[in-house]
Amino acid sequence: MNMNLYGHAGRWLMIDCGVSFDEPLNPAKPNSLKHEVVCADPRFITDNKDELEAIIITHAHEDHIGAIEDLWLRWQKPIYTTPYTAAVLRKKLAYTAFAELVSIIEVNDGETVQIGPFSVTWIRFTHSLPEPFGVVIETPAARVLHTGDWKIDAQPITSAGFDSGVFQRLGLTGIDAVVGDSTNAMKPGWSTSEAECHDGLLAEVKEAQGRVVVGCFSSNIARLITLARVAEASGRYLAVLGRSLERNVGLARQFGLWPEHIELIDHTHVGYLPAREVLVVATGCQGESRAALNRLADDSHPHLVLDKGDKVIMSAIIIPGNELDIQRLTNKFKARRIEVVHAEQSDR
User: Is the Ribosomal protein keyword given for this protein (predicted)?
Assistant: First the structure.
């Protein structure tokens, strides 16, 4: 999860406020008890909340935005973010009793805002969801680039491709430090462009004789759009299992990203379709115990039953620390003779 503080002249600026799921408080300690939801320890900034100027949210992933609804009342400070992330945040806050109290200030690519002693400029990156942004934070003491999540992608589906020129020009003007955030940044080689995922997924789906269930991050709008096109090309009906997936498809439609000619079927109807006409996207690709994939593996989902010969595609990277949970999930499917394909192990 993410929560970063930048300080200058006795004032503080928070970047992101996220959660993680099913994790121990101390991952380095063997056999640590796992907790359903975990966030960074907010005690320091809560004790010094009068010195906090504002909160910046770089993008709409849960590990960057998910703790706002639980922690905002401790600080009650304005939140700066871009329009798509603001829409996600407003939907999350709608379930609280204080949504109308939260000041959400929308900013755009290249915009500079003075927040107390911090001059903050928004810089567009590319990633798996709309509007991933980093920020350049400038004070008389230093100039820092805080990246947020990023992936260098020439064809990210939900936006224009990565613009290296922006960062070359930024380097020429002088940066004192880069605070980078990318799960795979230390791996050699290049990440697969989101646009390239279509052909591999289509091949896997066309090969399948039975139902196909795809596990992916619910916030990965680009992958959801790709899967909608795969469903159309393979002659299958598309449904999603999980409230977060339904919410994110709705947001994709709201921002004009969803291919409008492709309709989702009601998830309560998917169990009545012939097996070869079913393509389902489900939550729980990291092995989360209460998500849709685990319920399918346990044969306890109320709307869909998988059979021998069906296929599950894990279309997401394995986040470090989740290996054992994902292996347990995989084993449960395989014990029922349901094929499991992992993106990281596939040659497609």
Answer: no
